[in-house]
Structures are given as C-alpha cells and as structure tokens.
Amino acid sequence: MTGQHRIVVLGAGYAGLAAARRLAGAARDAQITVVDARATFVERVRLHQQAAGQRIPAWDLREMLERKRIRFVCARATEIDTVGRRVVLDAAPALDYDILVYALGSLADPERVPGVAEHAYTVATPEDTRRLTLSRGPVAVVGAGATGIELAAELGESRPDLPVVLLGSEEPGAWLSPRARAYIRRTLERLGVEIRSDAKVIEVTSDGVRLADGSLVAAAATVWTTGFRVPDLAMRSGLAVDAAGRVRTDATLRSVSHPEIYAAGDAAVIAGPGDRELRMACATALPTGKYAADAALARIRGVEPRPLRFRYVVQCLSLGRRDGLIQVLRGDDSPRRTVLTGRAAASVKEWIVRGAARAARP
Ligand SMILES: Cc1cc2nc3c(=O)[nH]c(=O)nc-3n(C[C@H](O)[C@H](O)[C@H](O)COP(=O)(O)OP(=O)(O)OC[C@H]3O[C@@H](n4cnc5c(N)ncnc54)[C@H](O)[C@@H]3O)c2cc1C
Questions:
Q1: CB-ligand 1 contact for 73 (6 Å cutoff)
Q2: What's residue 1's pLDDT?
Q3: Cα dihedral 150, 155, 160, 165 in deg (nearest 10)
Q4: Which atom of ligand 1 is nearest to the CA of 233?
Q5: For the chain: N or C, fewer Cβ within 10 A?
Q6: Which domains does the chain have, with CATH numbers?
C-alpha cells in the first residue's frame, strides 16, 4: 500500500529517530531515508554530564539504521525545494521525497547577549560541549532553567575543586512547585554551588559576566545554558514558521503551508493541552516524532489521522549522579504538589534517560 513512497526524515535526534523507527515498523515497502549532519547519535539529554567530564554513549547512525533497512545519509540539508519536492544536501546528491518529516531540533542561541559567541561555552550540541575545558578556575553557569540546574549540580558533584556559581534572573526551577524549588536550592547548596537569583546577565567577557546592576562576576569559564534557537532551513525554504523559525503545524503535525511535510520535536510549533505550546524537550520529541510518522502513514493509507493528544506526566531533573528530582505534572505541564527526590529520583531519571535512548534507536 505504501510501496514506492519516498519518505525522507531530516534529523536523527530523538524526534527523527522515533519517526524513522515507527515508519520502518509500519511501512515495510516504503523507501525511508534519514539525513543527519552527524554520523553518530549522541544522547543530548546527557550533554551536561559530558560537560562535567563524563563519557556519554554514542551510536553509529548508519549501522543502527541500516540494520533496520533504513537508508542513512550523513550530510547537512541546505535547502528544501518544496516545488520539486527534493532536499538539497551539502555532501550528497539531492533526495526526492513524497513525504518529508522535519525534525532538525535546536541549537544554542549565542546572539542574544553581547560576548556569548566570543567568550561563553554552550552545551546545546555535542560539538559545543566537546570544546568545554573547565580546569582553570571559577565557572559561571548562566541560566537557572533545567539545563543550567543540571549542569551546575553535575559540576558541583564531579568537580568540587571548581567554584561554581549559578546565575539566573529567577530562582532555580521557578516554574516548578515550591517543594521542588526548595529541594533544588538545598541540593545545589550542598554541592557547593553558589546561587545568585535576580542576576540578569547583560554581557559576557573574557574574564566573567556583567550583570544588569553593573556588577561583575569573575569566572574563568562561562557556560551559557539559556535560550535555544532552531535551524533556519524551514524559514529559508518558504515553509510557514513562527518568529523563531519553528515549523507551524496543524493538529496532526502537518505543516500548515506544505501538506506533504510533517514536523516534530524542538523544530516544530505544536499546540498542547489548553492551547499551550509544547516545550522543547526529549519528552516532547519522542512522542511527537512517533505521532508524525503515524499521521503520515495514515494519510498514505487514505485514513484521516486523529489529532495529536499530548499530556505531560513528569519532569525529571538530575542533580548530579546520586540525586535528582521528579516533578509530577498536570497534563498541561503545570506542576502538582507531588515530587520525588534523592537517590530514588536519580534512579528514575537514569531509567527514563536510558528508556528514551532505547525508544529512539531503531
Ligand atoms: C544538556 C541538555 C539536557 C537536556 N535534558 C533534558 C531532559 O532531561 N529531559 C528532556 O525532556 N529534554 C532534555 N533536553 C532537551 C532535549 O535534548 C531536546 O528537546 C531534544 O533533543 C529535541 O529532540 P529533537 O529530535 O527535536 O532534536 P535534536 O535532538 O536536536 O536532533 C536534531 C538533529 O538534527 C540534526 N540537524 C540539524 N540541522 C541539520 C541539517 N541542516 N542537516 C542535517 N542534520 C541536521 C542534528 O545534527 C541533530 O542530530 C536537554 C537538552 C540539553 C542540551
């Protein structure tokens, strides 16, 4: 039924791989090709661990995909010719498609504040994180969101020799329940992390950061963990996108401008419960990648897919390797009172991270 359909998946992160895995299982006679600029799948949700000097797992994409009869092309997509329905690549011949799944994820956004691009490290991609060398003195972690909290805790635990300061304009975990926020603060303090809330960073320099109140925080290394952007490919190729360049989708994750294109994960605008947009997360990327594949296959078979039904359940933060926090959520991502903490939470988080990698790997 799906014979000769050429399905190209752009991006082999959590969303793209979840889509490819689903497609390979359900559309055995379609030609499925996955494109990624990297040759390996690195567990992005562990990059703060890599930044703190730990080795993290990586899988060879070609080997992993071709075992499931999915073609892999290691190249950067440079243009989508939506009229000719072909993807132009930098290091391989262009690929024709009948269906395209757009899952190019997100990147650090170093342009928001002066000096970030020149002087700060980021942990948004494996390449960024590999550059990180933290052996020279105090570290300033900018951003008290999930990535900043996880990184500061990891550094506090594995590099007790380095003074670490976590800077944010709000308290760490401000979006979580009061119990969760209190636990994060206690744990970071136990790990020796200095917390500075109300610290809006307006400039990064070679020897630290400048705050909005004019004061300077000295640091041998500054790690910028706040603000992500998305690749501009969709915008450059004429797809309907939001101001950030994310692909606008309908309730079935189909591009609102190009019905043969589906989008999932960080690179898509996806409406969630209560019309709140789904947040950039692995917890979003895996189910939306899978759903995008199902929706595309349903239409190939002449069936109208049911709209995406998405509910958050928990948000998991690691606080070093031996501590963690699981925040129970309402479906719309708002926090309930219930939290799990300590070693049990660290084990649950580790179990979820391993499960996410298993769910992505075809
Ligand atoms: C340190 C850190 C910790 C995190 N922890 C958590 C967590 O605990 N829980 C959670 O839910 N989320 C977490 N996240 C967020 C999560 O990693 C992302 O939301 C998730 O990876 C998004 O998946 P994706 O498939 O949309 O994109 P990505 O995982 O970003 O994958 C996109 C892929 O597209 C490829 N690509 C991009 N542009 C091109 C191009 N032009 N041509 C070819 N290939 C291209 C990239 O190489 C990449 O492999 C964390 C993120 C970071 C940085």
A1: no
A2: 45
A3: -80
A4: 41
A5: N
A6: 6-106+230-300 (3.50.50.60), 108-227+312-360 (3.50.50.100)
